[in-house]
Amino acid sequence: MAYSEKVIDHYENPRNVGVLDKNADNVGTGMVGAPACGDVMRLQIQVNDAGVIEEARFKTYGCGSAIASSSLVTEWLKGKTLDEAQAIKNIDIAQELALPPVKVHCSVLAEDAIKAAIDDYRNKRNKPEQA
Ligand code: FES
């Protein structure tokens, strides 16, 4: 199976690999795994006071398509509101990277990771202040 040029580009030059402080109250962390293959993706977003994502980082232990999918979404996430980020669909990722059908679940992992990171951020924000 041949990887598309975009997959190879993101795989060889992944954007925004790294870690944000998961304890910071403006950071959301999403950690998801794909049962089919055991690959794991961690995606983090840093959100400013206006509700806009200003930083995104990922670490992916997985296949080339999973790494490319997470690298791509960190680029897409920056500058988006949480609602806009929530609207990113795996199909957008799969199309952009020209993923073959057997690799579509790798883009699903990226969509799930975005949603998990947003949920984590929102849960943190909704927590009552500690007295
Ligand atoms: Fe499972 Fe790519 S093969 S995430």
From TrEMBL:
Q: Which GO terms describe its molecular function?
A: iron ion binding; iron-sulfur cluster binding
Entry GO terms, CC: cytoplasm
Q: Might you name a Gene Ontology BP term for this protein? A: iron-sulfur cluster assembly
Q: What domain of life does the UniProt record list for this protein's source?
A: Eukaryota
Tell me the ranges covered by the NIF system FeS cluster assembly NifU N-terminal domain, including all copies: 2-126
Indicate the transmembrane segments per the record.
none
What InterPro entries is this protein classified in?
ISCU, NIF_FeS_clus_asmbl_NifU_N
A single Pfam family it belongs to is NifU_N
Among NCBIfam families, the record links this protein to: iscU
Entry similarity comment: Belongs to the NifU family.
Q: What is this protein called?
A: NIF system FeS cluster assembly NifU N-terminal domain-containing protein
